[in-house]
Amino acid sequence: MQATSRPLALVVLAAGAGTRMQSDLPKPLHSLGQAPLLAHALASAAPLEPSRIIVVTGHGADAVEAALSDIAPEAVAVRQAEQLGTGHAVLQAADALDGFDGDAVVLYADTPFIRPETLDTMLAARAQHDVVMLGFEAEDPTGYGRMVMDGDTLMRIVEHKDASDAEREIKLCNSGLLCADASILMETLRRVGNDNANGEYYLTDVPELAVAGGHSATAVVCEEAETLGINSRAELARAEERFQQLRRAEALDNGVTMQAPRTVFFALDTFVGRDAEIEPNVVFGPGVTVESGALIRAFSHLEGCHVSAGAIVGPYARLRPGAEIGNNAKIGNFVEVKTADIGEGAKVNHLSYVGDASVGERSNLGAGTVTCNYDGVMKHRTEIGADAFIGSDTMLVAPVKVGARAMTASGSVVTEDVPDGALALGRAKQVNKPGLAVKLMDRLRAIKARKTKG
Ligand code: UD1
Ligand code: MG
Q1: Ligand 1 atom, smallest distance to 15 CA
Q2: Res 4 pLDDT > 80
Q3: Distance from the CA of 254 to the CA of which of 70, 98, 182, 201 falls in 20 to 30 A?
Q4: pTM
Q5: Ligand 2 centroid to 137 CA: how many Å?
Q6: pLDDT tens digits, residue range 90-105?
Q7: At 62, is the pLDDT very low, low, confident or very high (cuts 50, 70, 90)?
Q8: Which distant-in-sequence residues (6+ apart) come within 8 Å of 45 by Cβ?
Q9: Which of 286, 70, 234, 88 is nearest to 78 (CA)?
């Protein structure tokens, strides 16, 4: 989808203090749609297939860099020891861009809604101009840098604090995003000074200096909502609302049925296939894939799992990381599945825990089946073959195997492997004492009567 064939370097600014978040967690790591803000910024640019990704870190650098190596292991982090401004921040990428012949795109880590299409438009404009900045018509421009245009040319950007009354009337505001020829950008940044109200090196001085140096600069305009930045918890909460609205609309557009979309919560990487149905009050944590035609019933919580076509999950089910639900399998109410393969057509319908296990095709686990996978120190596996029948309230003490077409009697504590086709009886034999229940009850009543008298 890249508009030009030039190599692209992405520079993400993530060094700021984020003071208004009132948090010990660095701002780029605050969560939106169950993913760090930083992951959203990187996802915006991912379709452009940047050949270099450079993230400028500063406040909370250790934590941000640790998260970065999970999100984008190919990215390089460069540190900005002191936060001397957005221009100074981009300049920290100079070494990492040494010898790079292509375009650079600058994004903020705290601006999660930039659409890849908008970056594409900027790259297309970049084919005509050396420097392209992204602007928007602000409903309330207070605080933003104003874009001074002369026809197509972006003459300069003036920060709110430094602007005259006349300049403050300008509605076209700077989002902060920039796309420029990388060497022109770096060469221009070296000439940026800090003679302004904040005493900072402003990235926004680039257009004016570039134009003065004989280069061309322009602005591309997008919707204000797209440039929404996160500065406080209240803004983060509003962003979450917007994120969920966008994802719900997208799911509906893609052919997912939801009766109450407002009660369904998606994560950044949730994938739900066409003709899948999501009942009300379902929460998706990170890493969930639901295939076509699957049904996720009400009040279920899913994370790090895969639900195959035709499977039914819930109501009130919990799928934890590593749950792999096969085609047409059924996971019912109050069932928890973790690191377990549930085979095609298998059923775990009621009140069960299946962890560190594999369940063969068409097997049926009765109500209250528990894989006892943890001995207090280590985890152990339970393997159940195809067409097995696990009686209600069976405790499968792992490591243990139950063979194909084997059965366990209800209430069994299974500590030894069950061969194919065998029935395991692992419970005390029942003894009936005639009349003893009535006698016992009478005795208890008598004791109680004596106690209440005294
Ligand atoms: C910036 C723009 C302003 C624009 C606004 C849009 C400048 C000088 N101003 O102002 O024109 O309207 O964004 O929201 O660029 N950062 C660093 N290192 C620094 C300073 C900032 O990494 O030394 C990062 C921050 O973490 C943040 C981003 O850069 O992600 C923007 O910085 P911020 O201080 O929010 O800039 P604004 O004053 O909002
Ligand atoms: Mg800001």
Answers
A1: 22
A2: no
A3: 70
A4: 0.93
A5: 16
A6: 999 999 999 999 999 9
A7: very high
A8: 10, 53, 105, 107, 114, 116, 119
A9: 88
Q: What does the pLDDT read at residue 5?
A: 74
Give the pLDDT confidence of 112-127 residue by residue, as tens digits: 999 999 999 999 999 9
Question: Residue 411, by phi and psi: left (phi above 0), alpha (psi -120 to 50) or beta?
Answer: left
pLDDT of 1 reads: 47
* pLDDT of amino acid 2: 47
Q: Are the CB atoms for 415 and 397 separated by under 8 Å?
A: yes
Ligand 2 centre to CA of 86 (Å) is: 10
Q: Indicate whether 60 pLDDT > 50.
A: yes
Question: The tokens of 414 are what?
Answer: 């299974």
Calculate how far, in angstroms, residue 95's C-alpha sits from the geometric centre of ligand 2: 25
Ligand 1 atom with minimal separation from the 229 CA: 14
Residue nearest to atom 1 of ligand 1 (CA): 176
The pocket around ligand 1, CB under 6 angstroms, is made up of 13-16, 56, 58, 80, 83-86, 88-89, 108-110, 144-145, 157, 159, 173-176, 202-204, 229
Q: How high is the pLDDT of residue 181?
A: 97
| Phi-psi sector, 211: left (phi>0), alpha (psi -120 to 50), beta | alpha
**Cα–Cα distance measured from residue 184 to residue 213, given in angstroms and rounded to the nearest whole number:** 10
Name the CA dihedral angle for 407, 412, 414, 419, rounded to a multiple of 10 degrees.
-20
CA dist., res. 100 & res. 77, Å (int):
17
Reply yes or no on whether the pLDDT at 55 is more than 50. yes
Ligand 2 centroid to Cα of residue 177, in Å, is 12
SS3 261: helix
**Alpha-carbon distance 313 to 362, whole Å?**
16
**Residues taking part in catalysis:** 350
Within 10 Å of residue 450's Cβ, how many Cβ atoms? 9
